Amino acid sequence: MPNVGAKMSSFRAQVSTLKFLFLAVAAIQLVTAASGTIVALYFAGTGASQEIAALAPAAYSLGFLIGCFFIAGWITSIGHIRAFSAAAAICTASALLFSVTDNEPTLLFVRFLTGIATAGLFAIGDAWISETVDGSSRGRLLAVFAIILGLMSVLSQVIVIITPDDLNQSFVLVSLLYCLAIVVIAATPSTPPEGKERANVRVKALFADAPTAAFGAIAVGIVSTVFMNVVPYRAAVIGVDAVDVAIAMGAIYVGRILFLYPLGLMSDRMDRRRVILVASVIASFALLTFALLSTGDGVRHAVIVGTPVYRLVFVGLILLGGSMLTLYSLLLAHAMDRTVPVYVASSAVTMLFVFTIGGIIGPLLTSAVSAVFGDMAMGWMLMIVMAAFAVLTAVRIKTVAPAAKAEQTNFKAAETTSLKSAPTQKR
C-alpha cells in the first residue's frame, strides 16, 4: 500500500507540473479540430469549387508531414517554449488571414503553413510529456492526455455553433485561442526537457512486417481526412445549416471517445485484425449510407430534417466516428504486434508518416474524382477505399496466422498527431 500511495503522489505531482502544458495543448487541439470544419464552411460560403475545398486539407497534410519529419529538429535548437510560441504565432497569423482575404492560392498556402506549425506544436507537447514523466506514470499521463484531446475535439465544434452566421468571427476566436496557448506556455513555471533523438521512418519494413497496418493507415488517412475536412463543405453546399454540420462533426468525435477503449481492450483478447475488420466493415456501411444520402441537391436532407430518421443519421455518425476514428489506434497496436521490440518506436513514427501520406492522397484523389465524375462521386470513393481495406483485412485473416500472444502489445490510445510511442508497450 505505501508503494501505491507513493506512486499516486508521484502521479499527482507530475500532473501538477504539466497542467500548464496540458492547458496549452488543449487549446491547440480545440482550434485544430474546429479549423477543419470552419475552413470547409468558409470555402463553401465563398463559392469555391469542391476541388479547391479538397486541396486545402491536402496542403495542410503536406505541411504536417514536412513539419513532423523534416523541421522538428528545430525544437532542439531553439528550445521547446520558443518553438511553441513561434509555431502558435504562425497559426495565429494564418487564422487571421482567412478573415481578411478570399484569394484561393493564398489560403491554400496558409493551410500549408498551418500544417507545418501545427506539427511542431503537437510534437513539442508530445515530447515534453514523454520526456518529463517517469516510466511508472507515463502510460496514465498519456491516457489523460488522449482523453483531454478527445474532449477538445468534441468541444471544438462549439466555435462553429456560436458563430454560424459570420465565419470571420470564428477565425478571430481561433486566433485568440492560439494567443492563449502562447501565454500559458510562456508563463509555465516548469522546465522543458532536453530534446532527444527520434526514431527513424522504416516504410519498407512496415509494409513487409505488417501490411494490414500499413495499408490500413493509408486507407484511414484518405477516408478520415476527406470526411472531416471536405464533407462539411459538401454539406454546406447542398444547404445543410452550419450548426447542423458542427453537431454532426461533434457526433463523429463523440463516437471515437465512446468506442476507442472498448474496442482496444477487446482487441487485446483476440486476433486484433478481427476487431479491425469489424470496425472497417461498420465504417464501410456508414460511408455507403452517406453516399446514398448525398444526392447533390439537398432534397433528401430537407425531407428528413426534424424526423426520427434525422436523429438516426446522428446515431450513424457516432458509429462512423467509433469505427473510422478508432482504426488508427488499432492499426498501430497491430503494427507493434508484428514488430521486434527494438523497432517499436520506429513503427509508431512510420505509421504516422504513412497515415499522413494518406491524408495528402485522399484530398487530391477527391479533387480529381470530383472533376471527372462530379461532386457526388466523393462519397462513393470513400466507401470503396474503406471497403477495399476491409476485404484486404479479411484475406489476411484467412491466409496469415495471428500474432502470438507473447508478441502482442497492450493497446494504448494513439493520436494521429503523435510521434511518440513507449517501447514498454511491447511485452
From TrEMBL:
Entry keyword set: Membrane, Transmembrane, Transmembrane helix
InterPro entries linked to this entry: MFS, MFS_dom, MFS_trans_sf
Any Pfam family matching the protein: MFS_1
Span of domain Major facilitator superfamily (MFS) profile: 17-405
Superkingdom of origin: Bacteria
Transmembrane segments: 20-43, 55-76, 83-101, 107-129, 141-163, 169-189, 210-233, 245-263, 275-293, 313-333, 340-365, 377-395
PANTHER family, per the entry: MFS TRANSPORTER, TRANSPORTER MFS SUPERFAMILY
Protein's name according to its UniProt entry: Predicted arabinose efflux permease, MFS family
Organism: Shimia sagamensis
Lineage: Bacteria, Pseudomonadati, Pseudomonadota, Alphaproteobacteria, Rhodobacterales
